[in-house]
Every structure is written in C-alpha cells, then in structure tokens.
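Lab notebook, bench 4. The sequencing result for the construct came back, and we need a structural model before the next group meeting so we can plan mutations. Quick request posted to the team channel:

Model the 3D structure of this chain.
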Amino acid sequence: MLEITVWVFVVATAVHALYYLFFYARVAVHKSKLTTKPLPPVTVLICARDEAHNLRQNLPQICTQDYPNDYEVLVVNDLSEDDTMETLFDLGRKYEKLDYRTIPENAKVLKGKKFALTIGVKAAKYPNIVLTDADCYPSSPLWLQRMAGCFAEDKQMVLGFGAYEKRDGLLNTLIRYETFVSGLNYLSFALAGTPYMGVGRNLAYTRSTFFSTNVFVKNPTLASGDDDLLVNAVANKRNTAVCIDKDGFTVSGPKLTWDEWLFQKRRHVTTAKHYKLGHRVLLFLYQFAHVLFYVSLLLLLLYSRDYALIGGVFGARLLLTSVVNYFAMKKLSSADLWIWSPLFDLLFPFYYMAVLPALFNKPASNWR
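Done. Here's the predicted structure in token form:
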C-alpha cells in the first residue's frame, strides 16, 4: 500500500509538471506584439440589468478610449427596474459614442443574458465586437486598442483577462488568486492551440463568429456561461488570439461576502459540463492530480520515513510552480499574490470540493 502511495505521489507531481511546462509556462514567457496594421472600427457591447450605478461610474472611461478609428459603445438595457434608462439618456447626451437599446418586457424569448446579447450583436454598427460588463472598467485608455488590435491580425475571437480590484481581507486575496488561476488556464490553453473558454468581462469576436453556431438554442435553460459556451463551440487555434497586455485588461469590483462569491463560482461551474469532452478531461485531470498529490503527501508524511524522496519531489514541484507562477502573475497584474501561492495551492482541493457539486445542480434561473 505504501509503495502504491509513493507512485501516486510521483505520478501526480509529474502530471502537474507537464501542465506547467506545456501549458502554463506559455503565459509566463508570452510577449505581446502590437499590430502594425490599421485598427478596424469596433462596437463595444455591454448588456446591463439594474446597473445604473456601475454604468454611471464606468461608461465614461469606455466612451473616452484612445482609439484611432471609429468605435461605438452600445448598451442593451435588459428589463432594468432601476434608473438605468435615465442614466443612459443622461450619458448619451454627454458622450456621442454611446448608443443604447431597451428590450421590452414582452419581447424576452431566451433566459439570462442570451437575448440581450443577441439583440446587441445584431444592432452593432460594426462587425467587430468587444464585450465587457457594466461593472467593469478598462485598465487604461489603451484597452480598446489592445483588444481590437488582434482583429487587425485576421483573428475572429480575442480572449482577454478580467482582473478584480485589490482590497483588504482574505476573501479578496482568494478571489484574485482564483481569478489568476482561471486566467492562467484559459489563456495558456489558448496559446497551446486549445481555447476552451473566455470571460464576458473582456472578450471580443466578430458578428459572423457569433452567428456561426446555435449554442444558445442548444442550452436554452442556462442563465449564465453564455460567453464560455460560445468560445468552447467556435474557438480554435487558427481563429483565436489572446490579449496578455496590462493595458488591455478590464477591472471589476469583487464580491464582498463568502456566500456571494461561492454562489457565483458554483453558478459558473454549471457551465463546465457542457464543454467539449477533451476540454473536460484536461481540466478534470489537473484537478484530480491536485487532490491526489496532497492526499498522498499526507499519507507519506504519516507512514513513510523516506523523507529524502518526499522532500525532493515536493521541493521540485514547489520550485517549478513558484517560478512559473511568479512570471505569469507579473503578466496578469497579480504579482502581489505570489507569496500566497503555496498556501492557496494547498487549499485549492477544498475549493474544488466546495464548488464541484454544483455540476449536478439544476441551472440557475437568475440573469447573471
């Protein structure tokens, strides 16, 4: 039994080493290249429900981007019950780039954000569309240049990174660390030619790409995960680019309570079971190896005296993950989290157990 545990410990470590060397190191060493081609006109699309405060705070930064070509900011007001409409009217008089549409109550035919998103893509003035959320703001005046620049290189989909504001407290640190891990996953997989998801906080695609699949019709009951499923359905190594440039990130306000954050993560997990089989296998294999590594480590510490082997394998894994995480975190504006990475790596198997049961839950019925 002890020999089997040793093999599990070594194999789990080897699996993680392969992921870090083949996938995650790509983000760590990635170098952004600015296009030399003319930037295309673009539509920034935001779907909003009861987001008057966030729109008032964030739209001015989006409507005043330093962009050398035409662009519009299109907000789809999806059945808001606050003063979203009045806010859009006031801001529309101030910013000529801002346009908006309102969905009537009796027009809703799809759950969640799907209908608003479809209306927005159809109404967009330009075929190249950059998405963000009402509670997001650009990291710099060059955000739109960085994201839309990939369209100039003949790409039809662009995966960007959506960070969260840094605040005090353990919850905020964990939220930002989990966001880094998620970003490291989907960006590195895309760089390896296997894109599987993106975040609606910072995502771009062409109108033709959006309408090339009926992913919403296939999953009409899902109230969230629309952006994930679209990327999973149509993205590939030829048509997809990544934007790993600090000027091209978006920033959002984080959840303030543990319950809110866990509810959000469990809702997101319900989308994963609709991914392509190969993507599900890759994601599960890493998480399964993660759990096995720490379970086998604990058993070896309790029952084995071969401390040289235990220390050597554990130390090699710690060195590899620390080096890759250090450079990847610098790329994703998360360098201050590096000191926390060994602790959170230890705690993440508990995170998996907290959110993975949501895979078996019924889809949520709320909008976001």
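The radius of gyration is 21 Å.
Will bring this to the meeting.
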